[in-house]
């Protein structure tokens, strides 16, 4: 203890009391360093805290007792410059255990401002009975009373990572702030962000359970003891929010955030701080963390899939729309060109047949009107406006549709026969849409017959009422090769085609139009050979049956 220890007898004490004796009795660790950092006094509480005796330490430089590799020069210079230092430091016991101590260090100077010594008061950050640290001290599951009751077993085995935190610093800070009249903690912390930074170093973890050790990728609970800074390292502003919640008197604060583990990984966690309940307990806050990385990853994956799906759906709708326009407009445009060419040929003839040219010009006009109606329908589809629903005589609709492709049928030498039951009830529908279905089905039949080079070349259409009289059934049977069993279940899918240059959109459109009309469309192979398509459409209600 030497000369420096004698300086403890200075005026702070009454002359009748020996300061060294008082320091010997103190519960806190009291260490005195000489101006060169050599330990001059080491009280019995220091022996209990660090495990070294005064005999082993006094007369030796303090650096010999630090954790290996601990830098100390800057710290030492800071005390010399500022005159004091207070905070948490990592220390080592004689048994080699690392722990955190809360220390206050004061540089004492003589009247000529010469440095006399540095006095350090220190305590273990964990609120535990004084005693030499042993392995279990950092483990939250180790009961300080030594018993291993149900409560501690529960804590030890609970799957949630649990930290016990000494939050005295916050409690004292908030008491002081309230006394100073601070009511708006958010505004205060906005103005003084350094307070949050300071708290990260002064609010300390005092114990942790096994799950916490595992979550942090640590080897033992002792590694988790110390300032809570590491717990909030990957969570921007979390410390601030935790402080605000406590100041505002809430019982707990929970949020989903991120945790940086000791092996450098970032995990998604659900963070909960449960605050002490004054007045019984003002110092212990519990923090629990639940690793939700997999859940967050799965949710992100799901969101990504949903976005991709929406994107694909948009692209596919756009693609369908484009394909639809191309497919539907192609036929009337081709008819217009054919009719115009024929018309020109007739005009070039010497014996001008005005009637024939007039007829062809009429066909050109109706082809153009049809093309424009299709464009309008597509526009309606794109604008999501409702399709028209008016009472229609399906025989008329089919007659008009056949008219559009009569030339194709004739050019390929196909016999088209249409059987129509008389006095059929009307259906409610969109004329252009239903014509499209018929045109699509007939074009497919024409192509099937042509491609197969069938000898028997016919298309047989029939329009009849169903047995229960609730729907009109339109059936188209051709003399083509029919549809293979493998393809039968796919032909109504968008972009399914077996044709070179086919778009595979025609039947998909037919299907959606039939369904939108409350009906259905089916394909099969006719017992006599060839494809057989049947579309049924519900008949219009009685009030719509007049005047059609
Ligand atoms: P695309 O005509 O562009 O191929 P569709 O959707 O109209 O597109 O037809 C899809 C497929 O259904 C055709 O490629 C063909 O294989 C089959 N198909 C449709 N109608 C017939 C038919 N009448 N006879 C035989 N196969 C047909």
TrEMBL record:
Q: Which Pfam family name is an example for this entry?
A: PAS
Output the PROSITE patterns linked to this UniProt entry.
HIS_KIN, PAS
Name under which the protein is recorded: histidine kinase
Name the source organism: Ferrovibrio terrae
Q: Which residues cross the membrane?
A: none
The reaction(s) annotated as catalysed by this protein in its Swiss-Prot or TrEMBL entry are:
ATP + protein L-histidine = ADP + protein N-phospho-L-histidine
Taxonomy, superkingdom: Bacteria
Residues of the Histidine kinase domain: 324-541
